[in-house]
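Hey all, sorry for the wall of text incoming. These are the two entities for the joint prediction.
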Amino acid sequence: QNIFSLSESNMGVDHKNFSELVAKYESFIFDCDGVLFDGVKAVGNSMQTVEKLMRLNKKVFFLTNGSKYPRSKLGDKFKNLGLEVQQSQLYTSAYIAAEYIKRTQTDVTKVYVIGHEGITSELSAVGIDSVGAEEHAGMKSDFGNTNVGDNLDTSINCVLAGIDFNFNYYKLAYATMLVQKGAKFFCTNRDATVTNGGKLIPAGGAMVAAIEFATGVTAPVLGKPNKFGLELILEDHNCDPATSLMIGDRLDTDIQFGQNCNLDTLLVLSGVTPKEKLEASIADPEGIKPTYYSDSINTGEIVIEE
Amino acid sequence: FTKLLDLYDAFVFDCDGVIYEGHKQISNSIETLKTLQQMGKKIFFLTNACMYPRTRAVAKFAKFGIKVGEKQVFTAAYLSAAYINNKHPEIKKVYVIGQEGVNHELNLFDIEAIGGQEHNDQTLGIEEDEETIPDYDESIGAVLLGLDFKVSQYKLAYATNLIKNGAKFFATHGDITYVLKEEFYPAGGMFKALLECSTGEEGLILGKPNPYGIEMILKENGCDADRTVMVGDRLEVDIKMGQDSGLDTMLVFTGATSKEMFEENLQKEGGIKPTFFAQ
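and here's what came out:
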């Protein structure tokens, strides 16, 4: 069991031992929502913590399962919160999915997308056409209306689903029909909901559940916890998994991803996972256990070791 | 077939795939119904279609040349409203994701139906600080999910928050798809799966195959379960419902289930077996 003891505490990371933690690792992979971002704001002074790591010449990457924004827009979000990041540090589930499909599904040239520009821009960047997304956002349906069947483009042999704020009957029918006719089916992530404006919104996982239920076809997840994301990071950057730390707020995506990739992991309680859930997971023999946990990444000053 | 007539006083029929297909009757089903009526048998119709109020079904039968009363027709919308009214009298407001037939039946029981049509033009903002759904109305005691062609993220998010905050989760039906021009289109069951994922709660189907519908029919009409037969074209919906209510059942092959599908199902361990089958 990969539990590391830091001074007296068993797994707990706080302001007393955060510097010790930082000294152990060369690369830090951050989940975004719930770790760095709280909606449109930063979580405490998380931006300063990340900036400090970058100034210490640590390698810092951002690995998010969010697929609604293109990487450029995600970069803007960081900039607005006071942190300049390079596009090469950003890994969204949409980018990962596009790369995965391009490399492993060589017969796919056109994808039906449930989602937004975050996904279509990444597919386009690797030379794959997309249908659906914004164009189908306004399509109407009714009982007895066969517009989906009549308009179905059967040359589309792949469906990729992520969160879609413009989700409607037409898109669900279109995607389901394609999968039933044999199109490959992937999802960027399986989150059942995300929080927007303080309210829950059904996310990609819920839409995928509906299509899987109807077709009996399971959609592999291309974002976390699929380890493909790490393969991309390692290809682009010279970092060593043995000295890399994955930091996130969700056990079944961030921490599971870390475990799948043999990375040490830090779970922060500033996001979706309450302390009780973490404790229950640690107590459960089958439960997902991070290497460390912390209230947040604002655990105080990082002291540079001489 | 005539032997069957001696065994039963009451016949409960599914409609689509048994009596009619769209606007056409199947074979001479209407003649059969008329014969049953003339013999003094009681006939009832039990359908998961919720688009229209029951009066519309009555009119449809009239066009086919048979006189049927509203009290003989049970739609999933009507059953859902009756169930909520009888089993949950404390619920006076329901959030509906469905068609007008559902609102109509709820209103008949003095239950306020909101959502449905009013939320048709509401959208969700993609940006995190944009307008999102309003604070949920705590007086809404239940979400009733039907088939809504104007379903949206706004409505699904509204329902998700209600259910997560304690509102009951009901569905008029669980049918996964319906067939139109040989293609499968999503039915309520797909949206039920979506909401079950987003809420972590299981929805309760109030239409078929919930035995509540048969319970209502038997009670309201003084029928004996031993002398009543359920006729339908779907094993997991019609036949299962009949069985769970203690009725004999008959499967026909003019609808969703072909004879081949039925024979394949018979080979399966635990496959649903009707009492009779007929073309």
